[in-house]
Amino acid sequence: MKTMKGPAIFLAQFASDEAPFNSLAAISQWASSLGYEGIQIPSWDARFIDLKRAAESKDYCDELIGVMAENNIQPTELSSHLQGQLVAVNPAYDKVFDGFADPSVHNNPAARTEWAIEQVKLCARAGRNMGLDTQVGFTGAFAWPFVYPWPQRPGGLIEDAFAELAKRWGPIFDVCADTGTRIGFELHPGEDVFDGTTFERFLEACGNHEACGINYDPSHFVLQALDYLDFIDIYHERIYAFHVKDAELNTNGRQGVYSGFASWVDRAGRFRSLGDGHVDFRGVFSKMAQYDYDGWPVLEWECCLKHPEEGAAEGAPFIRDHIIKVTEKAFDDFAGGGSDRAANLATLGISNGG
Question: pLDDT-based confidence at 332, cuts 50/70/90?
Fold first, then answer.
């Protein structure tokens, strides 16, 4: 059995142009001061990393690792969420997602797609240069606007969507294979891959590629009323990364899972700081330990009520308190009598002669 690393924190929600959130050195020192041992780095944020340079230069990556090491921090994974989102975009979202891309490809969906694919490839190469074997991100979406089957979906629509999704991710997975890296996808509403069934569909379309995995985040499953503990039992072999995030679902006579287009504060389903929501983290960490998850538990802070810095300060001790240092021996070893086959056969009433 294995004990996971941690605690760690995802930087995306904290990055800003104000110190200490505006440089890798400063934010590493801040995270370390709160008790974190690792940081998950948003690969699109030039304040923390030059992705192209990192993909091309191990020396540069060694410099980044040195900056973190000075503050007793390690990189956990690179995040390619925003670029992965742009690998596949339904035309309904062209305008709203253009802001995730480089200005040079705005208003040009075909160029944006190529840019996004290249960015995720760069992330694989940069991760390898940093000694990392996993990146985390999104799949993007063609079919999400049709998540509810009304009007009736045309025959083959979903099959065609996933075939094209796999076609676009195939070359990225090839780069992952070449670099010895993999991708943990955050199963997230708004993506075509948002639960276990859609992950299975995507994985099959991708030929069960070894690089295709899951960034497990129970909060998104709470908001879908999905059994997030059973999910670990089913998919643990494909869980490559772990976001520790809380959520609550308080349905009533006015709102259910879809939450009525309400703001985050007023939604039936909303994200909360760790310990303030409905996720059974004792159960989650127990399952992850049971299945030998030895990666990082990474706080992804999102809360509609609490201040982010307070949520971050609470996150490290919360995660540390939930990490299970796994046992190296059985609890009843004291009563063991050793192993003797002849004695075993006699105990079972079996003679050596058959």
Answer: low
